[in-house]
Task: structure prediction
Amino acid sequence: MRYDRTVHLDADFATAVARTRDALVAQGFGILTEIDVTATLKTKLGRDAADFEDYVILGACNPQLAHRALETDRSIGLLLPCNVVVRADGDHTVVQALDPNTMVALTGLDALHPVAEEAARRLDAALAALTTTDADG
Result:
């Protein structure tokens, strides 16, 4: 089972991060956290930044969807599709989000299906906006 929804962009890393933030906000997701994985590895492990590509994790949350999922299962916070990864891949950038259907598949809770469907629709729209913008230049 694939657990990700991924797009590849012909955009530099900084542009891809900014566009990803905008696309998520347009779909009702707030960006609650941002983890610069590259900087963290350098600081905490003393690794040279050249050892690891540009890599950011955006903590994106749609409060209404998160609330609906948590009302169904308080432990679902472990599986909420909140992390969106933006990472350099050679001359391109990759944007990845957790497939919301993973919540249903791992828990077996059919009550989460409508939440997963709406979250998937919104994430897919955000990712599609990135590829549309990318194609438009």
Notes: The helical segments are 13-26, 37-45, 63-72, 101-107, 113-136. The radius of gyration is 16 Å.
